[in-house]
Amino acid sequence: MSVYLHGLSTCVPPHALPQDEVARRAHEILGPRFKGFDRLAPVFETSGVKMRYSVAPFDWFESAGGWTDRNARYMDGAADLYVDAARQALDDAGWRAEQVDILVTVSSTGIATPTLEAQAKSRMGFRDDALRVPLFGLGCAGGVSGLNVARELAHANPSAKVLLVVVETCTLSFRKARPKKADIIATILFGDGAAAAALSSEESGVRVDRGASKTWDDTLPIMGWEVDEDGLAVVFDRSIPDFVTEEMRAATDAACAQMGLERDMLGRVVAHPGGAKVVDALEASLGLGGGSLDIERDILRDYGNMSAPTVLFVLDRVLKRGDAEGTGRPLLACALGPGFSAAFAPVHVA
């Protein structure tokens, strides 16, 4: 039995963060607190990011508090993003909320208990007996990993309608008290956003096949969160681009073999654009032509790194552009995340 994509949506919160204004305010707030700020400041211009969006207005970043303040912003902003993305995906699929049998929610940038799909239940109109599957801690790999989990649940439940919603509010990790280099890079790259996908075994023009994953040994410090009194602080190891260059080809080949594919059978790689250097590294490692990941760079430019939903923004734009229509060659969605890990999902377009 196959699983198909019926609806796909993306959305961002209301507060726009133009990169030039972010750079100016970061210089005022972080410059006096981080002695290496001037050395990193040019990265605001070379990062490939021009615009991002946040659940918080600019003024919040000057007075950002600790856990209570940050998580309250997450609860409100993430719930609104959840509802917007879910409604749009259901509209795209032609489904009603009460028809959804399984709710898969991916989010790693705040703590919500009850989880976001429960927070949104009354606004959405989900059934009381819908199966809830919240996934936390997947980070940037969460978009593809969540798609794989939703696909497996739809495959195991042939009559089920499955709704995947991926929500991240990365900008709330902004640190000003004692910022580290990784915090400055996060300030340069991070944005907020959400994406949703509706899947079932009913046939449509886009099929999602069984995916694959890879977790490397002895790589826990490469990416993740540190937790302290102020909330979540990002961990970005400087080795990530080099690691991708050295390791991604073999990991992709192994994943393709597991999925019954070969890399030269692929029509296009649909990658999570974690940063400009990571996109360059993916092209080099996978032997793609320079500039092949053009949509990835466009999404990074327009929205920044939103963590988990970002790859679904890329997929949405690739499908709308029709890169794979009628070619018979599958797309390969892929993303890297904490673990250190990679997730892969083949997407076939009729």
Q: What would you note in describing this structure?
A:
The protein is an alpha+beta fold and about 350 residues long. The protein folds into two domains: about 5-200, Thiolase/Chalcone synthase (Peroxisomal Thiolase, Chain A, domain 1, 3-Layer(aba) Sandwich); about 205-350, Peroxisomal Thiolase, Chain A, domain 1. Helix content is about 40%, strand content about 25%. It is built from 13 helices and 14 strands. The strands form three sheets. Strands 1, 4, 5, 6, 7, 8, 9, 12, 13 and 14 form a ten-stranded mixed sheet that branches. It has a two-stranded antiparallel ribbon with strand order 2-3. The chain has a two-stranded antiparallel ribbon with strand order 10-11. Helix 12 crosses helix 13 (about 310-320).
Labels describing this entry:
about 350 residues; alpha+beta; Peroxisomal Thiolase, Chain A, domain 1; 2 domains; ten-stranded mixed β-sheet; two-stranded antiparallel sheet; 13 helices
Strand and helix map with partners:
Blueprint: E1 3-11, E2 15-18, H1 19-30, H2 37-40, H3 43-46, E3 51-54, H4 58-63, H5 67-93, E4 102-106, H6 116-119, H7 121-124, E5 131-135, H8 142-156, E6 162-169, H9 181-189, E7 192-200, E8 206-208, E9 212-215, E10 223-228, E11 231-236, H10 240-258, E12 268-271, H11 276-285, H12 294-303, H13 310-321, E13 331-337, E14 341-349
Parallel strand pairs: 4-5, 4-6, 12-13
Antiparallel strand pairs: 1-7, 1-8, 2-3, 6-7, 8-14, 9-14, 10-11, 13-14
Helix pairs in contact: 10-11, 12-13
